[in-house]
Amino acid sequence: MQRNHLILAFSLLLFCACGPEPAPPEVPATPAAAPSPKPGPKPEPTAAPSPKPEPAPLVAPVLPKIEDTARSDAPAELKAAAELLGQKQWQKAKDELAAKMKEIDRRGALDVRAQAHAMMGQAQAMLGDVKEADREYRKVLPLWDKPREAAKKLMALEKKDEAAGKRRVAYVVDATGEALFYLAEKSRARAEEKPFPDYAGAGEPNDLDHHVSKKVRGWLDVRLGAVRKAQEEYARIEALKPEPPPKWSIVAASRRGAMHAVIVHAFRTTPLPAEWKDKQDASPYKAPEAPVGPVLTWEQVRTRYRAALRAAMEPLVPVAVEAYTACQQLSAKHGRVEPFSKSCDDWLKGNAAASAAAEAAQEVPPPVPAKAPEPKPAPAKDKPSEKAPEPKPAPAKDKPSEKAPEPKPAPAKEKTPPAKEPEDI
After folding, report:
1. Cα 37 from Cα 221, distance rounded (Å)
2. What does DSSP assign to residue 159?
3. Which H/E stretch holds residue 118?
4. Which residues of 117-138 are buried (b: 16+ CB within 10 A; e: fewer)?
5. What is the pLDDT of residue 376?
6. 49 — pLDDT class (breaks 50, 70, 90)
7. 295 in helix, strand or coil?
8. Is pLDDT larger for residue 265 or for residue 49?
9. Helix axes 147-156, 110-126, angle to 10 degrees
């Protein structure tokens, strides 16, 4: 028994001396590699700035030639000559008319005479004989000096057929309209002889302003004076009685629009000097209205010039639009579609977009003014009277609206009686 106790004690002593079996040394954990970031989208290469879009092409006015239009109906005696003119066989038409002219002048009815001389005038004009063309067309005009009396004579020739009488009247009115158009065209040609004064300087702003205010406006005043004279000639067509001839009314309205549209187009398309037409850097010039400011870029110089031209041109655009619109309306009213009415449609449609694009492209950036000095802070004011008053509480409802000095607290036993209102005077 005692032996067993000794063995047990010895075993315990041995166990404590040796200790538990040592645990294997801990190996420091290798830190987990951070997850590699997911590759993002590759940055796209920066696109080069796109160039400014070119403005819409400007539609030039088209001036049709009268020989490109079909002739109106002609009296039976002149059908052969009318067909030759329609085929542009000018010499044959002239010979056909010359063979009959003496007899027509001696015995022909008024409508036949008017049409014969108008046809001969066209043949001579197309053959280049301006003097003879003038003479023939001027023979037409006196035949309709007194339209009411002349119309009665023509209607009397067709007592049983009113429609035939009206056709005779229409022949004379048509021939008169043709003669008036021929003479108005000569006035228009004279108005358009002098070309637009293009600028050829270095681009200095004061020089540009002088060019526009003197040379361009001087040219414009002369041109518009000549245009007004031509307009008076075209207006005679639209005043013909008993009513204006449909064909020549459309032609006259087309030409009125074209005379102004031609000027507008000259303003829009005048070239810039090649020396600074395409320059993009800074110019050596400053804006006259900002002499201490930065220099203008060449683009600003160009846009200043275009803006000055546009200011002189703008009043002409509504005039052209009005005349071309009248041309459209007359074409629709009479059901006539031919080169003259088509020229009105084309200009109005083409320039509706072109005008807007051209104006947007020619907007003038305002000149950069000189940098103003920064304002100095105001000195502090130490006077109590100049300080902003502190907000006071709103007065009580039963007190007058005017602010009074704050009342001193009244004795508790006595109350201040309310002030009496002043009596009306």
Report:
1. 75
2. T
3. helix 110-126
4. bbbbbbbbbbeeeeebbbebbe
5. 55
6. very low
7. strand
8. 265
9. 110
Which ranges in the chain are annotated with CATH 1.25.40? 58-183
Assess whether the previous peptide bond of 242 is cis (omega < 30° from 0): yes
Tell me what pLDDT residue 72 has.
72
Rg (CA), the chain: 48
Query: What is the rounded distance in angstroms from the CA atom of residue 26 to the CA atom of residue 121?
Result: 123
Q: What's the CA gap between 109 and 155, in Å, rounded?
A: 12
Angle at CA 316, nearest 5°, toward 311 and 317?
A: 95
List the structure tokens of 182.
Answer: 């021929």
For domain 58-183, give the fold: 1.25.40
CA–CA separation, 357 vs 197, rounded Å?
Answer: 24
DSSP 211: I
Q: What is the pTM of this model?
A: 0.69
Average pLDDT of the segment spanning 316-337: 93
CA distance 271 to 279: 14
> Is residue 71 classed exposed, middle or buried when 0-12, 13-18 and 19+ CB atoms within 10 A define those classes?
buried
* CB 231 within 8 Å of CB 257: no
Residues whose CB is less than 8 angstroms from the CB of residue 283 and which lie 6 or more positions away in sequence, other chains included: 203, 276, 295, 296, 297, 298, 300, 301
pLDDT band at 391 (very low <50, low <70, confident <90, very high): low
